[in-house]
Amino acid sequence: MTTQQGLRARKKQQTREQISHRATELFLERGFDKVTIADVAAAADVAKMTVTNYFPRKEDLALDLGEVFAEQLAAVVRGRAPGESALAALRGAYLAAVAAQDPVIGFSGAPFAKMITDSPALTARLREFHEDREAALARALAEATGAAPDDITPRVAAAQLAGVHRVLFDEILRRTLDGESGDEIATTLGVYTRIAFGALEPGLGDYAVR
């Protein structure tokens, strides 16, 4: 990449972050459904078309980590260590994310959590991200195991593994709305993570070992 290309890429990233930041401020202040794309463009000092070029769907302005979220589990499986199963890799990565109180797994704070749950559009978009994440995980598991196209096993395993992540995400969201602090939630989720993944150990403990 040339210096000029690098500068352009950084500029685009800065513009994207500026738009997302201003949009989040407006959504938290007024509520997601009461803010328009025009409002976001004015706040970010860009054209309306610029906003839609970076974020084709309004929901993605609020859930701007959606792509990271959707690919997160697949990336963990692809990066698992030699001798490590998919379940072990995902459990380890999730425990690390809990310890870091990572926003991608749900540690978003009460105002953001309320913004999501108060908006049917955001709730629906989040559901789509969960579904996309499960599908991406199924593809990664199929690649990891060399499964045939008609082998249902990767999809069954992905449904179970992604399902555990979804239950834990919802638990973080619920506890956040109930007023628990990040530290309190992290302590509880550390226990819940071991219980949830432990329930899958009999069936998936030796699956997709690298």
Please explain how this structure is put together:
This protein has 210 residues and is mainly α. The protein has two domains: 3-61, Arc Repressor Mutant, subunit A, CATH 1.10.10.60; 66-204, Tetracycline Repressor, domain 2 (Orthogonal Bundle), CATH 1.10.357.10. Helix content is 75%, strand content 0%. Helix 1 packs across helix 2. The two termini are 34 Å apart. The mean pLDDT is 94. Residues 36-55 bind DNA. Keywords: DNA-binding, Transcription, Transcription regulation. This is TetR family transcriptional regulator.
Largest sheet: none
CATH class of the largest domain: Mainly Alpha
Succession of helices and strands = HHHHHHHHHH
Number of domains: 2
What is the arithmetic mean of pLDDT? 94
Distance linking N and C termini:
34 Å
How many whole angstroms does the radius of gyration measure?
A: 19 Å
- Globular, elongated, flat, extended or rod-shaped: what is the shape? globular
Number of strands: 0
Tell me the helix content. over 70%
As residue ranges, the low-confidence spans are none
Looking at this structure, what is the CATH superfamily of the largest domain?
Answer: Tetracycline Repressor, domain 2
- Protein structure class: mainly alpha
- Could you say what the CATH topology of the largest domain is called? Tetracycline Repressor, domain 2
CATH architecture of the largest domain: Orthogonal Bundle
Strand content: under 5%
Helical stretch count?
Answer: 10
